[in-house]
Design brief:
It is a single chain. By secondary structure, this protein is an alpha/beta fold. The protein has one domain: Alpha/Beta hydrolase fold, catalytic domain (Rossmann fold), CATH 3.40.50. Helices cover about 35% and strands about 20% of the residues. It contains five helices and six strands, in the order βαβαβαββαβα. The protein has a six-stranded parallel sheet with strand order 2-1-3-4-5-6, with helices on both faces. α1 crosses α5 and α2 crosses α3. The longest helix is centred in the N-terminal third of the chain and has 14 residues. This is Alpha/beta hydrolase. InterPro entries: AB_hydrolase_fold (IPR029058). It comes from Actinocorallia aurantiaca.
Length: about 150
């Protein structure tokens, strides 16, 4: 899939990752809500407002790290409510959301940067695309995984 905009959610600041993705031609948006992902719906609301204000190109690919992972269904729902197409979801070393009836509404992938990540097996059981990489190869592996969605 070719995303219009990659939306990076819950990532620690990494100029290298962002620089490498931009150099590969990706449009990026990295919402930074006042509330942390642990705040749940407040994080979703803040991220959704920032995504809307940026007027991103669609389809969006929502890419979550860490505790932003379980919020992906709500973030995707907020984008659908705003009439923005979500073309895929990617989890990078992220916690997984509970299975839900009407989600996922687009292809999903899981990218692990450490060996033996049990969430990788859980993603495989859900028939998601999966990949593993070292931290140094994160941008390349992320581009490859998104391309396979």
């Amino acid at each position: 899939m070719t995303p219009g905009t990659l939306v990076l959610l819950g990532f620690p600041p990494s100029a290298r990752l962002r620089d490498e993705l931009r150099a590969a031609g990706h449009r990026l948006l990295a919402p930074d809500p006042r509330d942390a992902p642990e705040s749940g719906h407040r994080y979703v609301a803040g991220a959704a407002l920032q995504i809307g204000a940026a007027d991103p190109r669609t389809p969006l690919v929502l890419v979550a790290h860490g505790l932003a992972g379980p919020l992906m269904p709500a973030l995707g729902g907020a984008q659908r409510a705003a009439h923005r197409l979500v073309g895929g979801y990617v989890f990078v070393d992220a916690e997984l959301p509970a299975p839900a009836g009407d989600w996922p509404d687009a292809p999903c992938g899981y990218l692990a940067t450490s060996q033996g990540d049990p969430r990788l097996d859980a993603a495989r059981l859900r028939a998601w695309r999966t990949a593993e990489t070292e931290e140094e190869g994160l941008a390349h592996a992320l581009r490859e995984l998104i391309g396979s969605l």
